[in-house]
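The following block was generated as part of the benchmark described in Methods. Ligand: magnesium ion.
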Amino acid sequence: MVQVNYMTSNEIRESFLKFFESKGHKITPSASLVPSDPSILLTIAGMVPFKPIFLGQVKSSLIRATTSQKCIRTNDIENVGKTARHHTFFEMLGNFSFGDYFKEDAIKWAWEFFTEVIGFPEEKLWVSIFKDDDESHDIWHNLIGLPEKRIVRLGEEDNFWKVGPTGPCGPCSEIYIDLGEEKASKEGGGVGVDGDRYLELWNLVFMQYNREEDGSLTPLPKQNIDTGLGLERIASVLQNAETDFETDLFLPIIKYVAQNAGIKYKEDKQKDLALKVIADHIRALVFMISDGIVPSNEGRGYVLRMLLRRAFRYGKVINYNQPFLYEVAPVVINLMKEVYPEIYKEENRIYQVILTEEKRFQETLNIGIQILDNIVEGLKQKSKDKLSGRDAFKLYDTYGFPFELTRDILEEDGFGIEEDDFKNEMKIQKERSRKSWVKTKMSGKDDKINQKLYQDILKDKGETEFTGYDFLEAKSKVIAITKEDKLVDEAKAGDKCKIFLEKTPFYAEKGGQIGDKGVIVSPSKNNLLIEILDTQTPTEGLITHIAEISKGNIKVDDEVLARVDLSRRKAIARNHTATHLLHRVLRDVLGNHVKQSGSAVNNHHLRFDFNHFAPLTIDELEKIENLVNEKILDELKVETKISTFDKAKEMGAMALFGEKYGEQVRVVKIGEFSLELCGGTHLNSTSNIGLFKILNEEGIGSGIRRIEAVSGESAFKYIKEKENIINEVSDKLQTIPSEIPLKINLLIEDAKNMKREIITIRHKLAHYEVGRLISKKKEIKGINIISVKVKAADNNDLRNWGDLIKDKIKSGIVVLGTELDNGKVALLVMVTNDLVQKGYNAGNIIKAIVPIVGGNGGGKKTMAQAGGTRIDKLEQALEKVYEIV
Ligand code: ATP
Ligand code: MG
């Protein structure tokens, strides 16, 4: 045990942030668990939201920041509840320097915080450093005075941080606390090995180098500091808790669950594990859902679903057989709401999402478990120790068993899974259901090759000035031209090229809004015409015009006139402003949980994706459409202004795609109705939208809905088209439009009557036909065989024919074939009972002949039916019967 003064987790968090504030850091609220960087699934560390600043992708006035960041890690999931220190959701305290202070201050302050603020006994603290990082060694040893023996050098695996094979990287130094002999694990070992005795608390990352293509390290122009200190772990030390689970962050949850289950914590190892896992996962669920994640079979939604189902299954271990997690959510919310108010705001939805998903899984869990039990029996019998990936996949696909869950259950019986196999099955399914909705911006590969080219242009010529918010025309100098991805000095008629201007009114595709089209001409003469087909941002700050030269030629340094296609731009603006109205209205009609998860706006239509748990009703859709049109008629003024992110958020602006720490943001305000961060181009007044019409609403993945709509001219066209269809129909029906439904009902009634009549007539006809068919009977070995083609409407009709013939001949084999209306073949075989006893079998006969018509099927001994596709082979199949018998 380490001698310390007790601190609550709130006190620890608070004192950490305050301490670094006193060292000039800006306390920045935790970013969402959904990173703004689309390439990262979830926020796994405090540095994630700052990644663009670290990598120099955005400009920011932040120099020093400190956060308590919500994190999710799934790579530690197997350890949860088994080790004292691993969680899926945890809070990472961190301090960050963006090109400001470096190693010495980072180490000094970490030491000061631990020994002076928190009061850890110095002699219990150990550190690890990267084996070649003598600089860190000297700071720890000479400056801090840490004895040589408590500074451990570790290899690249443990103490060298990187984002990828190239790019920023650097050594780390970790701080451990020695929890004493009694915690030592059986295997023993020291810092970096025995995680039970030497508990890793804090990782200090020194972003020092850039790894070049050739593998060499060059010092970064701006060196950064990124640190991460696990709150749950430090709380466990300061609260003298045996593991993290006995701290004030977990114990209230565990106690609540145990009490409801009628058990006591610390009486049964198996049950304790279940309690720990449930307490861990419910925290993750609450925070993930409040950040807008909904259960699905992919990406973040899958992680959420997996955690929920895993927790639900552990519920069975402590005798829960019905939904219970939703009742635990409020405990978590109460515990954490002061620090993270967003979870409180989303309370109802969190509750609803969890309950819905629990109910959904409850239905399949028991069947799945039974099936898994059978599979395990089978494995035992065959003395196998691993479940095939295919079986695991089936459990996943049919019964909603996440891989991790199947693994847990099997592990309890000492079995494993063919993991690679499973992944392969998943991959195949993904390909199948791949439905890409995000227009892929230029080819990714192309982008990478050209990045250097664009970076060079940017470095040489600076950023493109965008003037298109206020102007649709601009005189500008040509600063670069590229053709086939190479810089050229000029381009002439017939050439396809990319043109870079000093300034441009052309909007480059961004934030879901399509790029502008238009022309580039000469400001004075009539000898140049360049068509601009698209506008893009190949790298932050640079705008490229994708061009085709129709007339004349263009050189670098030429003065040109860039002119945006006005009516197209206007149509885009109508859809974009309409999208903002729609977003706001959706929140009003469906609830504040609605968050944009994607949008696309062009001159033809708009598309808006958002999270919502159920399909919209016709009433809701009508209400939404009406409200948007109301706001159009209200002639609301659309204004934009530049503000800071914090201010915009304070004003209640709807921010999308998680937070960004880029300093300046643009806010689009529509009357007093809508406020949104947005860089797009808009109308001046909503009245210009004219008309808003929803075309379609659908689900595009669990919990995500999509609305497609049109506005302005497209909306008018859409209505006109519908009107034309109605006119055409009423013409055909020889009635006025308002009478169409009535007329159609009459027609349907008529058709039904006719069908009934046809069936009766067919039946009558059949009686006459039967005689003729029986005359075609052949006798082989004393058995009556009738194998003929008939005209039947469907399988039922065919069976009627069969019954009629069988009744007449008393004993025999009847084989009938027919061509159905859909161009397919249906076959029927009937064998009378006396012949069945002699060993004839309708099922076998059909199996022998149906392949001839390209089908398969079977049936009972007395009657069998099957279908095929080859009409041309029907006769042949019927002939074959005689041979078989
Ligand atoms: P470990 O080796 O113990 O898994 P790590 O090396 O993966 O830790 P880092 O990636 O360096 O940890 O993260 C910084 C800090 O965040 C750690 O020192 C620890 O305090 C905390 N941390 C990391 N992973 C978890 C987790 N799964 N649960 C709780 N805290 C964690
Ligand atoms: Mg780890």
